[in-house]
């Protein structure tokens, strides 16, 4: 089969790799009909190289049709399914708590990490990912989300990651209708976090330096701002001088704008080119994030407010302004999205003919799998109005 493989920093390729096969009775094999490039994939592309091996199959936002089902998978050939990005058992203590990302059965204990993720480095189990023509799905008796046949793929595809991540970001902001929230970053997660917050009755301010992203969010009733020096003051003035009740950071480790950004960016890129045996310990013990978005959130949110972090952070030595956090009495919530916890809330919304979250206004580029290298570069550089790329593995070039 054809699959997108990681080959080095800022380099992916489409290669012929062995077809997956059933390994456990609760496995399934799906033919991937749509698979998206996530902002988190760019962290592999740019920062997390020390935990990757050339040839690793990437991607964690797939859906498709079951072509082979293990005896205890609870699936049948022909079932149409969306695959959550994490692999969880559904039966353990943490799964019962709605914390599927911490699944005790599947935790990547050798790395000290939670549940494995499709296509996401040694840190999360080195599981082959979903930017491929076919995908083996472990724990298919629990993970896959069965969907109907009436709607196009894009109505369901983002249940794999983007929608649950955005929904959790808003839930973790701990707000009520009438409150205010600022969303930092209007990439895929920020777009839906802003729309979900608006749908739930919040006043939403959003900051992003890219005009096309601001325009997309504005179409859905979001109050948008460029990332300029005056933006924080403008939003603070709009919220009685206090700042919004919550801030959602949808940017993460590769932000710009804080005093340490230039040094952290240099450190991140330097580590990429160290041999893995040297680079991994550096990332494990002394890795730095670029914290511009987080610093902005700490400054902007009102005293006693909440910071909800959905952007991925990976630095173990990132400096935090503890005085400001403590003095402002802020709550900080964070973590990978627990996909299955939120599906029952989201499925009626994506199937609603009125499309309340604007799923039809999200995908900017649909491309065959063969064009993945160009798509990664376009997405990273934010060219051609690129906000969300969907790859179609069964579309022949």
List the helices and strands and how they pair.
Elements: E1 2-8, E2 11-16, E3 28-37, H1 39-46, E4 62-69, E5 80-82, H2 93-96, E6 134-137, E7 145-146, H3 153-157, H4 162-173, E8 180-184, H5 188-199, E9 203-207, H6 211-218, E10 223-225, H7 231-238, E11 246-249, H8 261-272, H9 276-286, H10 292-300, E12 306-309, H11 322-327, E13 331-334, H12 339-351, E14 365-368, H13 372-381, E15 389-392
Helix pairs in contact: 4-5, 4-12
Describe this structure in words.
The protein has 397 residues and is α/β, with parallel strands linked by helices. The chain folds into 2 domains: 2-161 and 338-392, Quinone Oxidoreductase, Chain A, domain 1 (Alpha-Beta Complex), CATH 3.90.180; 166-334, Rossmann fold, CATH 3.40.50.720. It contains 13 helices and 15 strands. It has helices at residues 39-46, 93-96, 153-157, 162-173, 188-199, 211-218, 231-238, 261-272, 276-286, 292-300, 322-327, 339-351, 372-381, and strands at 2-8, 11-16, 28-37, 62-69, 80-82, 134-137, 145-146, 180-184, 203-207, 223-225, 246-249, 306-309, 331-334, 365-368, 389-392. The strands form 3 sheets. Strands 3, 4, 5, 6, 7, 14 and 15 form a 7-stranded mixed sheet that branches. The protein has a 6-stranded parallel sheet with strand order 10-9-8-11-12-13, sandwiched between helices. Strands 1-2 form a two-stranded antiparallel sheet. It is globular and about 60 Å long. The two termini are 14 Å apart. It comes from Nesterenkonia natronophila.
CATH class of the largest domain: Alpha Beta
SSE order, one letter for each helix or strand: EEEHEEHEEHHEHEHEHEHHHEHEHEHE
Number of domains: 2
Approximately how much helix is present in the residues? 25-40%
Domain Alcohol dehydrogenase-like C-terminal: 188-254
Cofactor: Zn(2+)
Keywords: Metal-binding, Oxidoreductase, Zinc
Domain Alcohol dehydrogenase-like N-terminal: 24-143
């Amino acid at each position: 089969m054809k699959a997108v493989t990681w080959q080095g920093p800022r380099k992916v390729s489409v290669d012929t790799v062995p077809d997956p096969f059933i390994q456990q009775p609760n496995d399934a094999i799906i033919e991937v009909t749509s698979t998206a490039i996530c902002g988190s994939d760019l962290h592999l592309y740019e920062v997390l190289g020390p935990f990757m091996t050339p040839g690793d199959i990437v991607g964690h936002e797939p859906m498709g049709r079951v072509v082979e089902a293990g005896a205890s998978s609870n699936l049948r050939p022909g079932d149409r399914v969306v695959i959550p990005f994490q692999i969880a058992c559904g039966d353990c203590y943490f799964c019962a708590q709605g914390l599927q990302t911490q699944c005790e059965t599947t935790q990547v204990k050798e790395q000290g990490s939670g549940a494995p993720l499709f296509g996401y480095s040694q840190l999360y189990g080195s599981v082959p990912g979903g930017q491929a023509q076919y995908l083996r799905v472990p724990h298919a008796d629990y993970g896959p989300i069965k969907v109907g046949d009436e709607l196009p793929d894009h109505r369901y595809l983002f249940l794999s990651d983007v929608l649950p991540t955005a929904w959790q970001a808003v839930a973790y902001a701990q707000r009520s209708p009438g409150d205010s929230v600022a969303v930092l970053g209007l990439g895929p997660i920020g777009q839906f976090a802003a729309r979900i917050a608006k749908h739930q009755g919040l006043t939403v301010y959003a900051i992003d330096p890219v005009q096309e992203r601001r325009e997309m969010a504005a179409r859905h009733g979001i109050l948008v701002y460029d990332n300029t020096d005056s933006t924080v003051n403008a939003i603070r003035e709009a919220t009685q001088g206090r700042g919004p009740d919550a801030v959602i950071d949808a940017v993460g480790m590769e932000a710009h704008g804080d005093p340490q950004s230039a040094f952290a960016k240099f450190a991140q890129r330097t580590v990429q080119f160290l041999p893995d045996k040297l680079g991994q310990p550096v990332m494990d013990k002394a890795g730095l994030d670029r914290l511009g978005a987080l610093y902005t959130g700490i400054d902007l949110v009102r005293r006693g407010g909440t910071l909800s972090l959905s952007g991925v952070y990976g630095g173990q030595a990132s400096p935090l302004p503890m005085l400001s956090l403590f003095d402002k009495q802020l709550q900080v919530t964070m973590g990978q999205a627990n996909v299955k916890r939120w599906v029952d809330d989201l499925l009626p919304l994506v199937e609603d003919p009125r499309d309340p979250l604007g799923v039809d206004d999200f995908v900017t580029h649909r491309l065959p799998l063969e064009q993945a290298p160009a798509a990664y570069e376009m997405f990273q550089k934010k060219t051609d109005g690129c906000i969300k790329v969907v790859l179609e593995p069964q579309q022949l070039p």
